[in-house]
Amino acid sequence: MLTKRLERVALVMLFLAILVATNTACANGGERTAEGGQSGKIRIVTTIAQIAEPLAVIGGDKVEVDSLMGPGVDPHLYAATQGDIKKLQSGDIVFYSGLHLEANMVKVFEQIGKERPVLAIGETLPKERLLKDPKGATDPHIWFDIDLWKQALGAATEELKKYSQADAAYFEANKTAYFKQLDELKAEALEKLGRIPEERRVLVTAHDAFGYFGRLLGLQVVGLQGLSTEDEIGLSDIEDTIDLLVDRGIPAVFVESSINPASIEAVIEGAKKRGHDVRLGGQLYSDAMGAGGTPEGTYLGMYRHNVDTIGEALASKEG
Description:
alpha/beta; Rossmann fold; single chain; 319 residues; globular; 13% strand
């Protein structure tokens, strides 16, 4: 209860800081135009890198993109800092995923949205294409369905074109070229994961972030935790997962770059006690991408890393 009270107090203080910053900006005549800041570029602020990096490609030399959340950061638990507020205030356009992914920041976006364009790109998608858990909660990990992610990025591109109509053709051409790479990546992923024997097409991870990935690429997905990393893992979740691994002869399970590996380690140990050796298949990127300047720091590279890691670990019992 004390923790909840402290969180509420912090949120109120944050709102006050936003209001002060907004009023100060208005008092200083801080109006924004399609010409952007001193660099002449459109300043884009995003929450997760899965949005930021593709928009940097689509926006090209017309934009500057800043992501609030870096490698290893869990967006489910993330709360805006004072530095984040300054970044959001300095942006011309703000994009976030939505669908309750950045649950602790929704009120912040509502306030920021009174002053500049703010778009939850995941909430532009058709509701019938979104996955839900048994409790009815929507799965926010939409970037793992390449087709859906193209639609979401397409909505962001339309917002950019609206903001700077003079650059609309440039953005559209970049989007078309980038989407061609996404289509090629999807074909590559289907081919590589298609090599996994049918009985071993099971992806076990720490939390339920890969539902869209499994639906697109034909894998059964088991996440020990729910859609959010705030969900608790029960003993029955671990035992049921061990049963599945033993019964199907699944050779590997996976940890995630932004999630504590303890639950996966418990599954490996439990299977071993049952006489079934399960190895750690590798680290996957789920809620966060890799470090900037690395292949995994790009959406294409992150996705390809996951496909290669899963395919190599599950394709044969020897790994």
